[in-house]
DNA sequence: GGAGTTCGCATACC
DNA sequence: ACAGGTATGCGAACTCC
């Protein structure tokens, strides 16, 4: 039989001592399919340098004869092959050791390690799914043609095909790439409501599901009146029905929002309490909770995607939302909000409130499903680019993405993968001193007119490519015809580092990533599809994270020397651009890392563009400078302490009258709304009007209305994130005190929460934290605190640019303008 | 016990 | 612990007299 098939989920089973890969997915005609296949389980042994071919062959023989037992299985070596491979810039002879079983690779490697003549073992830490994908080229979310035998209760696989809830189980004979076509997965979103937030402590009151037209809320509370609500006999019955509906709807993907951390653990806990099983897997298995920094819930055959995890890592940097709550994120991305539901207590929901509660619960699933479809192009393209299973890609961080991309492309370079750092290596790396990073030019505080900003496109990645910076190209000492990176500040002294000019895999791969991104952007211009945008975005993230990866303690290809050299070259190039710009009669007023702002000094925009062309013609390799924008006005202020200009704090106004505000309190979520609003309006007026006249009156008006308590309390709430557990704080700031109060009141408080509070009046000498109150706590806000600690700090430095002092803001009598 | 300084912490920029 | 370093500025905690 031959079918076209798209892989979604990968796992493997141990059948009669052999690993069998299970690839779940859809066929082109919409059937749910499981492909059974296998690939070699192996690792590499790199013999000691200087061993003759004969001695290596002898070592191979010795390895071939390894036999032992593990977990009741016979462990043996299937075969040993000698290959010519590359490893970190060197050609090596390596032994490919094919093991009887994936699970025994570690056991065998431990034995082999002791053999004389063994220099190192590698790739024992490649997961089976990764190995299968690279070996067989069966790429996730990419269409394939599969030829094989349809299994029907086959004894060969101990009948596993008969227990799988799929339309077809195929034992693969041949799998090859097929023509690309559209794929729209069937997605079910779900959400639970419980009467206690602590996992497992309370009851699950209801479970909602949304899957296309299928909308359902399950509950065991007696209720009638809404078609979509189904009343179950008990909590246990509800859990069972949930599994049944998942089975009936046959989704490819089950999605939730924070479902790794809340919904699925809660479901598991309640299932345990009710002494029943949560049989969601296509083999009727329960979700498996993989322990990592954050636990991930995996369901056999169905891709469980926690959208919160994906948004947190891959998407949050592009969002305006100040929290990553479902409500805020959905509102920004799909323009829909959650329903409101506020009950005094979830354990005492009043009779007339249930209807709203069910509607609220359903809406959460409905918007989660919509959010999923909005993010699907990114999930799809990220998966295709990184080549890891969707489940993993949706949870991986930047470093993992980079590493996955590298590992899935090593075969082209005939390269053996470096191992993950050991615990000791990680500790050492973490303990190292910081190296010197980017250059930031201190601006002179002032209001400027007619500016432009130039930026390097992908500065760091293009430096890594242009100067071949990586672990495998780093030279122990100077060689002729190598790249010399001078004066790299690291460990307290200036050092020189040398990198080979022979291109090797990491810089080559990063070069490809930059090129591919450019191609995507170009294609997108002609044909703006969400998929092209998402693909371009995947390459952008890879390029941006590549530099951070070099200096990341958990990286296989960790290389501080390369990271520090990248930053040093970045400094060199931005300095060169600044000098050339100043020498051309333009005045650079500010710079940060890879871009700088300068005054036109009467020059025409056309002249500036020509100057840009000239700069570009003088840049080496793939380095490129571009115009970010022209600006009518820009303001730079002093630091709160001292006379010097503050870095990373400025506001610009372009020709379309759009403001670009960086670093100011306006863009910081830990300042109250009033302070942010006032500062934003002051900046707006100043940039548009070119002077501070009207904004001064405006600011004074606000201070006066605050004095008269005409400002509603809501605008004075300060929000600060609780970044850790209460007991881990050394010093107790106001938000920690408020969090303690909340705990005392029995409110749910977790690390990661935004704590909201206001500052109330108090006795003289009271600490601020002693006056911090929860939003609904009775009290009067302290007008002095808000004037002196919120409003004035937000605008003082801006007015200082115009010679207006703090006293001029608070004086009761307004001065006439000419007095300034 | 008050003034000045350092430190811890949150958040931003690139 | 889960990409890097650079930077501001608050409020608490410390130092010093």
Notes on the structure:
This protein has 820 residues and is α+β, with helices and mostly antiparallel strands. A hairpin with a 2-residue loop joins strand 5 and strand 6 (73-87). Helix 8 (326-334) packs across helix 9 (354-386), helix 13 packs across helix 14 (505-526) and helix 14 (505-526) runs antiparallel to helix 15. The relative contact order is 0.07. The mean pLDDT is 94. The protein binds a DNA duplex (14 and 17 nucleotides) through residues 292-294, 396-402, 426, 430, 434-440, 459-460, 544-555, 563, 566-567, 592-595, 639-641, 646-649, 662-665, 667-670, 720-721, 723, 729-735, 767-769, 789, 793.
Strand order of the largest sheet: 19-24-25-20-26-27-28
Total of DSSP H or I helical runs spanning 4+ residues: 23
Total number of β-strand segments? 31
Overall spatial form: globular
Helix content: 25-40%
Look at the structure and give the mean pLDDT.
94
In this structure, how is the largest beta sheet organized?
A: 7 strands, antiparallel
Structural class call reads alpha+beta
What oligomerization state is this entry in? single chain
């Amino acid at each position: 039989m031959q079918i076209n098939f798209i892989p979604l989920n990968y796992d493997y089973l141990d059948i009669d001592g052999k690993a069998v890969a299970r690839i779940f997915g859809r066929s082109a005609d919409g059937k749910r399919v499981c492909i059974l296949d296998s690939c070699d389980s192996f690792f590499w042994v790199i013999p000691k340098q200087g061993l003759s071919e004969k001695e290596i062959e002898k070592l191979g023989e010795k390895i071939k004869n390894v036999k032992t037992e593990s977990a009741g299985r016979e462990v043996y070596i299937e075969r040993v092959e000698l290959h010519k491979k590359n490893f970190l810039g060197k050609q090596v002879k390596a032994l490919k050791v094919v093991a009887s079983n994936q699970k025994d690779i570690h056991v065998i490697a431990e034995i082999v390690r002791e053999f004389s003549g063994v220099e190192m073992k590698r790739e024992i830490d490649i997961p089976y799914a990764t190995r299968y994908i690279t070996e067989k080229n069966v790429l996730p979310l990419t269409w394939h043609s599969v030829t094989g035998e349809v299994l029907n209760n086959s004894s060969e696989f101990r009948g596993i095909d008969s227990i799988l809830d799929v339309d077809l189980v195929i034992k693969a004979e041949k799998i090859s790439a097929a023509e690309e076509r559209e794929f729209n997965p069937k997605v079910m979103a779900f959400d639970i409501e419980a009467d206690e937030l602590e996992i497992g402590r309370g009851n699950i009151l209801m479970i909602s599901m949304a899957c296309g037209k299928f909308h359902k809320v399950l509950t065991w509370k007696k209720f009638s009146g809404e078609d979509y609500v189904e009343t179950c006999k008990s909590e246990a019955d509800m859990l069972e029905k949930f599994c049944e509906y998942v089975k009936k709807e046959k989704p490819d993907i089950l999605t939730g929002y924070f479902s790794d951390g809340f919904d699925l653990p809660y479901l598991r806990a309640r299932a345990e309490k009710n002494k029943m099983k949560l049989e969601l897997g296509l083999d009727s298995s329960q979700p498996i909770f993989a322990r990592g920094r954050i636990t991930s819930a995996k369901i056999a055959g169905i891709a469980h995607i926690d959208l919160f995890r994906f948004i947190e890592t891959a998407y949050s940097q592009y969002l305006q939302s100040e929290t990553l709550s479902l409500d805020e994120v959905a509102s920004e991305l799909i323009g829909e909000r959650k329903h409101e539901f506020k009950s005094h207590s979830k354990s005492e929901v009043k009779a007339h409130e249930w209807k709203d509660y069910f509607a609220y619960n359903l809406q959460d699933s409905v918007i989660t499903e919509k959010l999923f479809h909005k993010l699907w192009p990114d999930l799809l393209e990220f998966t295709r680019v990184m080549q890891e299973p969707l489940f993993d890609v949706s949870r991986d961080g930047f470093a993992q993405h980079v590493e996955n991309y590298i590992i899935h492309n090593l075969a082209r370079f005939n390269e053996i993968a470096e191992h993950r750092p050991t615990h000791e290596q990680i500790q050492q790396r973490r303990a190292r001193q910081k190296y010197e990073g980017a250059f930031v030019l201190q601006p002179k505080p002032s209001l400027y007119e007619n500016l432009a900003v130039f930026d390097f496109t992908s500065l760091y990645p293009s430096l890594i490519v242009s100067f071949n910076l990586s672990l495998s190209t780093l030279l122990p000492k100077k060689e002729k015809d190598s790249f010399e990176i001078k004066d790299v500040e690291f460990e307290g002294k200036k050092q020189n580092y040398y990198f080979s000019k022979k291109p090797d895999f990491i810089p080559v791969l990063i070069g490809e990533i930059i090129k591919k991104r450019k191609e995507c952007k170009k294609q997108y211009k002609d044909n703006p599809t969400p998929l092209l945008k998402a693909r371009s975005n995947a390459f952008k993230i890879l390029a941006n994270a590549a530099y951070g990866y070099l200096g990341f303690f958990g990286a296989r290809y960790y290389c501080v020397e390369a990271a520090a050299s990248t930053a040093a070259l970045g400094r060199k190039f931005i300095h060169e651009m600044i000098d050339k710009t100043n020498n051309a009669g333009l005045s650079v007023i500010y710079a940060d890392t890879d871009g700088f702002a300068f005054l036109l000094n009467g020059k025409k925009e056309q002249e500036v563009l020509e100057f840009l062309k000239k700069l570009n013609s003088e840049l080496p390799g793939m380095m490129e400078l571009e115009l970010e924008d022209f600006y009518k006005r820009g303001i730079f202020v002093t630091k709160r302490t001292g006379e010097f200009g503050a870095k990373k704090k400025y506001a610009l106004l372009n020709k379309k009258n759009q403001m670009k505000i960086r670093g100011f309190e306006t863009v910081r979520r830990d300042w109250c709304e009033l302070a942010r609003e006032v500062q934003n309006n002051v900046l707006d007026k100043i940039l548009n009007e070119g002077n501070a006249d009207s904004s001064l009156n405006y600011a004074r008006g606000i201070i006066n209305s605050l004095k008269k308590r005409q400002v509603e309390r809501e605008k004075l709430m300060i929000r600060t994130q609780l970044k850790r557990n209460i007991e881990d704080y050394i010093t107790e700031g106001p938000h920690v005190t408020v969090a303690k109060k909340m705990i005392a009141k029995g409110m749910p408080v977790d690390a990661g929460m935004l704590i909201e509070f206001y500052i109330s009046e108090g006795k003289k000498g009271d600490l601020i934290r002693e006056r911090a109150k929860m939003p609904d706590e009775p009290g009067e806000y302290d007008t002095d605190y808000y004037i002196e600690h919120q409003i004035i700090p937000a605008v003082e430095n801006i007015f200082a640019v115009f010679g207006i002092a703090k006293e001029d803001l608070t004086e009761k009598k307004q001065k006439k303008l000419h007095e300034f």
